[in-house]
Amino acid sequence: MKKVKVALGSRSYDIRIGAGLLGRIGPWLKEKGFAGKAVGITDSVVKGLHAAALEQGLASAGFTVTVLEVPAGEEQKTLETAGRLYDKLAAAYAERTTPVVALGGGVIGDLAGFVAATYLRGVPLVQVPTTLLAMVDSSIGGKTAVDHSHLKNVIGVFYQPVMVAADIDTLPTLPEIELTNGLAEVIKSAAIRDREFFNFLDLNMKKAREVHPGVMEDIVMQAARIKAEIVAQDETEAGPRVLLNFGHTIGHAVEAVSGFRLKHGQAVAIGMVGAARISNRMGVLAAGESFRLEEGIRKAGLPTEVPDIDKEAVLRAMRHDKKVLRGQVRFILLRSIGDAFISDEVAPALVREVLVGRA
User: Fold this and answer.
1) Tens digits of per-residue pLDDT, 172-216?
2) Active site residue 245
3) Biggest alpha carbon distance in the chain?
4) Cα separation of 262 and 254, whole Å?
């Protein structure tokens, strides 16, 4: 097992990465002083695959376990679903010391995290990501949110977990599209911060797509380390944490306009390519670097072009991006692979040219 620490003073926590971790979460919580009730929140797909191992581990540590299930899918990440979960937490007599264990992918992590952050003004949260994307990104750093009126993650709070446990034994159960979805966030981490990690991915992408256990443990650890370092520097996204949104300005807009038919990672991959092309057109990124990033994204089985959707609607949706400052859409751009920066000087005409093909 590998550990990565998210250093946030008294709210620091470990990300534990390895095989066979689901059954160990109960004993770890007991070691931290938790006892009594524990509530798991999962979805209808993950429950049948992984909830039993989590429940057994919690019960073996003396917890009285309640597992709450929501239907699978992004469309469940709403205030209405959160309201139903509040009702079920109340029915289970959850207390302020009752840990809520989010077992699932990014949707469950965001939703259960939001519920934990707001129920009784905050109950302990344990993130147990079961997808690659959640392991390397959404489970780390305390972002919790729900969607509203077709806008993604617009209602939310920063709320740190007490622990993250990434059990790589869950990865072979993923459909291929979910694996590649996560590889987009892995590539993003390397592209903004660590050229050597990008080189490692380039050499090991075939093994990654085959879910080679040793390679996957290394990949999750390296990507988690990058995110943990950035979160420790900037917990609430006032500065360098914004770099983690590389590819997301275009990506979130593409994802929303597609009606969430595109997976988050697919949309981010398209967004990263768009940001790299903008960087190149602005003269800050060499063409060879932009090409290498695109090739890495293709090797991961991810798209590089905006699909057949309303590109004008994508441009409009970008105006709702949370990084907009005084009406200006800000982009995360690259100087080179491993060196990202924030820019509020991207001309709208250039964005239109890259996305639509005309200024």
Assistant:
1) 999 999 999 999 999 999 999 999 999 999 999 999 999 999 999
2) yes
3) 63
4) 8
Is the pLDDT confidence value at 358 over 60? no
326-348 b/e with 16+ CB inside 10 Å = b?
A: eeebbbbbbebbbebbbbeebee
Active site annotation includes 248: yes
CATH, residue 269:
1.20.1090.10
Same domain for 143 and 233, yes or no, is: no
From the list 143, 152, 193, 277, the catalytic residue is 143
Determine which one of 227, 277, 323, 330 is catalytic: 227
CATH number at residue 23: 3.40.50.1970
- Cβ-in-10-Å burial (0-12, 13-18, 19+) of 209 comes to middle
For residue 241, indicate whether it is catalytic. yes
Domain end position, chosen among 173, 205, 231: 173
| Known active-site residue 121 | yes
Catalytic residue among 24, 248, 263, 330: 248
Residue-level pLDDT at 74: 87
